[in-house]
Amino acid sequence: MNIATHYLERPVCGQSVAGSNPAVLAAAATGMVEFIEKMGGDVDRTFGHAGIAPEMAGEPTLKLSLSSFCRLFEEASRISKHDNFGLWFGNQFSPKDLGLWGYAAISSPTLGVALANLVGLFRYHQESSIMSLCEDDSGLMRLEYQIQAPDIIERRQDAELSLGMFLNVIREGCGAGWIPEEVHFEHAKPENWKDHETAFSAPVYFSQPVNALLFKPDTMTRSMPGRDLTLMTIMQTCLETVGKENDQPVSLIGRIQNTIRTQLPDGYPSMEQVALSLKLSASVIRRELAHEGLAYKDLIETTRHELALMYIKQRHLPFSEIAFLLGYSELSAFSRAVRRWTGVSPRQLRAQLT
């Protein structure tokens, strides 16, 4: 049950928008220069590798390429040698630093309206991504987030900093001691995963279908200390003006690939399973693939190949777990696939990549 309509007059749900080069407002990178320095990183090298000028970070009305934004945090993690860079960046991030989007939330009358504002206005803040607020079968609220651009493969740091930001929005209304019931991440368990339970003070689960904070419904009734309906309305209007969304939806091929990615840990997803998740018929998917000159098995192969390269770079992940995450029933099948893609074994490829 989507509950956003309970807190706003208009319905609000997860949005998904995309263009050939999806964007995000630069406010999401506020304080990045200082945080890189604090973590012992190289500011110019990090921003240079991402193709972003340091002075662009934090500009409230400036748009950055979403792929460059994600690369910025992946490079910051790599160069500073802090594997959980995004986790701790999000953990210390003030909702006010989210600019127009953040102020629209914290000036709301209640936390329920604040979260509904985050969801409803998200499409103006970030493209090719979804955010939704709903109640699951257990009665817990789920604030979900996921990048939908299929070409952005390495996005772990973004997921961790984003949930940290959302956590701090909720703590704005509930106090610094508030903790969620559970935290879910779509990526595999990182090496220093205990840091995540420390950062959120809650159980954290990895390799989940979507990134999410889970919490009790009564949280939604909390009053926001910064309640200011005039400011909230102004921020909503400004954000809608500044962040005019790209009207093109994520391509069907992109949606198919995203669904394949989320279903792989459960084994090789059939076309019928993917169609069911997308609420389409298998014939529609078959026609779209034929129109693009693609075979379904090749799309599975491409998705596995891209994910394998990302996972193999993570030295703490055993190859048996990577095989599982990619939907292989046996390690030998995964090893044969890697040799087919690269000409070398997984162990040799890891040595080359790291």
Question: How are the SSEs placed, and which strands pair?
Answer:
Layout: E1 23-25, H1 32-38, H2 43-50, E2 63-65, H3 66-80, H4 85-91, H5 100-106, H6 111-125, E3 129-135, E4 141-147, H7 156-174, E5 182-184, H8 194-200, E6 204-205, E7 211-215, H9 229-242, H10 252-263, H11 271-277, H12 282-291, H13 296-312, H14 319-325, H15 331-342, H16 346-353
Parallel strand pairs: 5-6
Antiparallel strand pairs: 1-2, 3-4, 4-7, 5-7
Helix pairs in contact: 2-3, 4-7, 5-6, 5-9, 6-9, 11-12, 14-15
Descriptive report:
With 354 residues, the protein is of the alpha+beta class. It folds into two domains: 4-242, no CATH class; 252-353, Orthogonal Bundle (Arc Repressor Mutant, subunit A), CATH 1.10.10.60. 49% of the residues lie in helices and 8% in strands. The chain has 16 helices and seven strands. Strands 3-4-7-5-6 form a five-stranded mixed sheet. The longest helix has 19 residues, at 156-174. The chain is globular. The termini are far apart. The model is unreliable at 1-19 (pLDDT under 50).
Q: Hey, roughly how much beta strand do the residues contain?
A: 5-15%
Q: Radius of gyration, Cα only, in angstroms? A: 20 Å
Strand count, sense and barrel status of the largest sheet are:
5 strands, mixed
Whole-number tally of structural domains: 2
User: Which parts are unreliable, with pLDDT below 50 for 5 consecutive residues or more?
Assistant: 1-19
Distance between the termini: 45 Å
Number of strands: 7
What is the overall number of helices?
16
Regarding quaternary structure, what we see is single chain
Which series of helices and strands comes N to C?
A: EHHEHHHHEEHEHEEHHHHHHHH
| Class by alpha and beta content | alpha+beta
Across the major sheet, the strand order is 3-4-7-5-6
Outline type: globular
